[in-house]
Design a protein that fits this description.
The complex is a heterodimer of chains A (406) and B (119). Chain A is an all-alpha fold and 406 residues long. Chain A is built from 17 helices and no strands. Chain A has a single domain, classed as Hydantoin permease. Chain A is globular, with a radius of gyration of 20 Å. The longest helix of chain B is centred in the middle third of the chain and has 14 residues. Classes of the chains: A mainly alpha (406), B alpha+beta (119).
Chain lengths: 406, 119
Amino acid sequence: MKKLGEIALGIVTSIGGFIEVGSLATAVQAGAAFRFELVWALVLGTLCLVFLVEMAGRFAAVSKHTVTDALRERFGFNFFSVVFLALTLVDLLVLGAEIGGVSLALQFLTGIGLRWWALPVGFAVWLLLWKGSFGVIEKGASLLGLVTLCLVVGAVLLHPNWREVAAGALPSLPHKERAHYWFIAVSILGASISPYLFFFYSAGAIEDRWDESYLWTNRAVAGLGMSFGALVAIAALVLSAGVFGTRGITQIARYDQIALLLTPVLGKWGFRLFAASLGIACFGAALDIGLEVAYRAAQGFGWNWGEDLKPVDDAGFASVYTLALLFGVLLVVVGLDPLKLTIFSMALTAAVLPLSVVPFLVLLNDERYMGKHGNGWLGNAVVLVIVAISFVLAIVSIPLELLGGS
Amino acid sequence: MDLIRDVLDKQLVDPEERRMGKIDGLVLEVEAGKPPRLEAIEQGAATLARRFHPRLAGWVEALGSRLYRAPGGPARIPWSKVRDVGIDVEVDLEFEKSRLYAWQEWLSDKIIRRIPGAG
C-alpha cells in the first residue's frame, strides 16, 4: 500500500519533471512548423528517457551509489572532470531558460517585462533551497504541475485528426525546410532526454534510501511517469499544429505567440491556464536543476549533501546552487532571447548526450556495482541507438541552423 | 586489493559515516630492494591538479596560498588510519579534523553565516 502511494507520487513528480520550458517550447515549434510530423521525435526521446530513468533508479537501489559518485570512482577524476564541466555548462544554460520561462509566464499575467522578473524568480528559487524546505516544496510544485494537464484537455477539445497524429509517431522525411526540421527534431530529443533528470532521480533514490525491494516501484514510476509527461508534450504539439499551423503561423519566433496556445480553445481562461502551466513547470524545473548542479559538485568531490541540511553545515553545496542561480538570472537579465536560449540549450543537450550516457551504460553493465541486476541487451541497445541518432543529428543540424541564421 | 580500482577516487567517511571528501591521490613509498608500500592517501585541489599536469599543480598551490589562508586539515592521511575499504573508505579520523571540514568551515564563516537564514 505504501509502495502504491510512492508510485502515485513518483508519477506526479515525473510529469512535473518532464514538462518544462524545453519540452513545451520545442513541441510548440514542431507543431506550428510541421504539424504532426515530428511526434516521432517525442516518442523516441521518451522511450530513451524511460529506459535511462529506470536504469538510474535501479543503479541507486542496487549499488547504493548515485550515478555521479560512481562516474568518478569508476572512470577516475580526469575523465570525470570532462563530463562534469560539459554537463554543468549545459545545466546552467537550461537553468537560465527555466528562469526565463517563469519570468515570461509572469510577464503574460502582469504585463511587466520578463527581464524585471528574472531576479525575483531566481531569488524565490534560491530561498526555497536555502531554507531547506525543498522536500515539501518539490512535492507541492509537482502537484501544482498537474495544471499542465489543461493542455491535454485543450488538445482533446480541439478535435484533431487522431489518425494523423498517430501517423506522425512514425519517422518521416521532411517535405520542406529540411535543416530546420532536423534541428527541431534534435531539440525535442534533447528536451526529452535531459541528463539532469536521471541524475537527479538517482540522487532522490539515495535520499529516500531505496533498496532492491524498490525495483518494481522504480519500473512503474519510470515507465508511467515519463509516458504521462510525454503525453502532455504531445498535447502541446497537437494544440500548436491546430492553433498556429492551421492559421499559417509556421515560425514561432517570439514567446508571446506561444501564450495564445490555449486561447482559441479555452478563451481568456486558456490564456491564464497556459501562463500558470508554463510558470509552474519551469519553476519546478529550476528547483531541480539548481539542486542537481549542487548535487553533482557535492557527489563528485565527496562533500556532504542533502536537501535537509542547513547551509552552514554544507557550505560548499549551498554556495554552488547560489552561484548557479545567479548565473541563470544573469542570462535572462542581460537580455538573451529566452526562446533561442531554450531551443539552443536543448540541441546542445543532445550533442553532449554520449558523454554522460555511454559511461553510464558501462556502470549499468558492471557486475561489481550491479550484481545480478545489470542491464539486459534490450535496454543497452535501445539507449545506445537513440543516443547515437540524437548525437549525429545534433552534430549535423546545429551548425546548419546557426549558419541559416534563424 | 587493486589500489586504482578500489581506493583512488573513493568516498572517504569518518567512523560516523560523515562524508569527508574523495581520495584524490595515493602516496607510495619506494625503497630500494623492497616492494612499494602504500604510505598515505592524499586530498586537495593541488593533488587533483597534479593528475592533469605537474605544472598545473604548482599554479593551484600558488593561487591557493594567496587567496585562502584557512587552517587546513591534513592533506595526507596515513594509511594506518584506514579502517575499512568497501563502497566507501572509512578512516579513523573525526570529520571535524578533515581538510573538507576546514575549508567548508572557512567558507561558512566568511560568507554563508553572514547571509540571513543560513543557520
